[in-house]
Amino acid sequence: MKAWQVTRLGAPAEVLELVDVPDPERAPGGVLVRVEACALNFPDVLLCAGLYQEKPALPFTPGLELAGTVLAADDPALVGTRVLGAPPLPHGGLAELAVLPAGAWYAVPDGMPAEEAAGLLITYQTAYVGLHRRAGLRAGEWLLVHAGAGGVGSAAIEVGLAAGARVIATAGGPEKVAVCRELGAHETIDYRSEDIAARVKEITGGRGADVVWDPVGGDVFDASRRCVAFEGRLVVVGFAGGRIPEVPAGHVLVKNYSVVGLHWGLYRTVAPAVVADAHEALTRLYAQGAIRPMVSERFGLAAAPEALTRLAARGTVGKVVVLPGS
Ligand SMILES: NC(=O)c1ccc[n+]([C@@H]2O[C@H](COP(=O)([O-])OP(=O)(O)OC[C@H]3O[C@@H](n4cnc5c(N)ncnc54)[C@H](OP(=O)(O)O)[C@@H]3O)[C@@H](O)[C@H]2O)c1
Residues 262, 127: contact at Cβ < 8 Å? Predict the structure, then answer.
């Protein structure tokens, strides 16, 4: 089969090679799938550069989440069904075929196209587990979502709205701010031209945000500390901006807020029931029309490096997917 491999570390366009490799082998309990769609995530860019927390040995195939059709399984009745999941590295989803191990795949919700289903695992689970389990988001609370037009940001807007939160979304530039509005954010802030903390205070009547969703870090995190509400929860999701911020414990104490770490991937090994429950909840939300992964760009397998380059350059909104069969 054809697969992209990272052969040395660096920018995706410089280090990815399209190669012919043997088909991946399925262990008992796992499923072999034809990849219909592989959803890209910022961590794919970090993986290529060797900057992600997980550092697979070279060469490896990136692509952290996918949807596809089962070609082989222990139970013959599964063959031909549609599943989504996270293929463990080094055999990621930027390939024609992939293996999802036992317990690491879920049924695609009825009627959901593969290009949308591919993003339902990491992207939406991160939003769902982060906002509900880690932050305890309640209906009526103010939720501040940073980088709201991005992958986990757009999912957090939708999951937050479905939970009954009042959503303030930030984004860089008027086009991305417009995307946040389209997703249903009640209020928006262009953080390239507006002061985050001042605007959040103004919007919330001085209260601040009850929950902050921060996949950016750096200055955005620092601004969030200035506008988090009494008993607020600031969720540390990622550092797309490049700088990992510091947390002064005295500030956390004096303002009476919590800084909540989120590493969704850990749930897969430490508490897999949380992932299964979240999948059921997300399937219900999809059936109700409350969530719908926003697929903005589609690429064929040959164009995967170009897709990752656009993601790395901050040039994309919502989800970017690679469709190996197209
Ligand atoms: N904690 C977890 O379990 C978990 C799970 C999944 C992802 N993540 C993390 O969440 C972050 C976002 O991932 P994603 O897949 O949603 O990425 P994405 O779709 O590329 O979105 C990231 C957004 O961050 C903003 N950004 C700000 N500064 C940036 C910079 N210097 N370079 C690139 N983007 C910048 C951009 O929005 P604007 O242009 O509007 O600023 C961009 O759209 C990553 O750090 C990732 O590692 C964490």
Answer: no
Distance 198 CA to ligand 1 centre (A): 23
CATH class of 123-265: alpha beta
Q: Where are the domains of the chain?
A: 2-120+293-323, 123-265
Q: With a cut of 90, say whether residue 64 has pLDDT above it.
A: yes
Cα of 151 from ligand 1 centre, angstroms:
7
Q: Whose CA is nearest to atom 2 of ligand 1?
A: 263
Protein residues with CB under 6 Å of any ligand 1 atom? 41-43, 122, 126, 147, 149-153, 171-172, 176, 215-216, 237-242, 262-265, 311, 314
The tens digit of pLDDT for each residue in 268-319 reads 999 999 999 999 999 999 999 999 999 999 999 999 999 999 999 998 999 9
State residue 84's pLDDT score: 98
Q: Residue 147: CB partners within 8 Å, gap ≥ 6? A: 153, 170, 171, 172, 215, 216, 220, 240
Q: Which atom of ligand 1 is closest in space to residue 265's alpha carbon?
A: 3
Q: Which residues contact 223 (CB under 8 A, 6 or more apart)?
A: 191, 195, 196, 197
Q: Express each pLDDT in 167-186 by its tens digit.
A: 999 999 999 999 999 999 99
Domain 2-120+293-323: CATH architecture, name and number where available: Alpha-Beta Complex (3.90)
pTM tops 0.90: yes
